[in-house]
Amino acid sequence: MKKEKMMADQLQCMFLEGKLNGFKESYINVITRKLRTGKVSIIELMQEDPILKEKIQEALVLIESEILI
Predict the structure, then answer these.
(1) Helix axes 50-68, 2-16, angle to 10 degrees
(2) Angle, to 10 degrees, between the axis of helix 25-37 and the axis of helix 2-16?
(3) For the chain, what percent of residues have pLDDT higher than 90?
(4) From the CB of residue 19, how many other CB atoms can be counted at a distance below 10 Å?
(5) C-beta of residue 59 within 8 angstroms of C-beta of residue 7
(6) How confident is the model at residue 10 (pLDDT cuts 50, 70, 90)?
(7) Which DSSP state fits 61?
(8) CB proximity list for 8: less than 8 A, separation 6 or greater
(9) Is 27 helix (H, G, I), strand (E, B) or coil?
(10) HEC per residue, 21-51
């Protein structure tokens, strides 16, 4: 669940930085809420939304780099 919360935070940051072009704020809000509440896992999200999958992979790289610092 901790990874899902970190992913939700990272996706919100990416949206605010303009790195999620083509995605509506309401959609990102729903996704991040589901991640934070445990209604969806990162893997499930990647499987159900192939368009967002690439952005999730980018977010994972950013999260891992922050953990290593």
Answers:
(1) 110
(2) 160
(3) 81
(4) 15
(5) yes
(6) very high
(7) H
(8) 31, 32, 33, 35, 36
(9) helix
(10) CCCCHHHHHHHHHHHHHCCCCHHHHHHHCHH
3 state DSSP class of 18: coil
Name the residue type at position 26.
Answer: S
Checking 42-45 for CB contacts under 8 A at 24+ apart, the result is 42/3, 42/4, 42/7
Residue carrying the six token digits 């967002």 = 52
The 10s digit of each residue's pLDDT in 34-61 is 999 999 999 999 999 888 999 999 999 9
pLDDT (average), residues 5-13: 96
Distance CA(59)–CA(56), nearest Å, equals 5
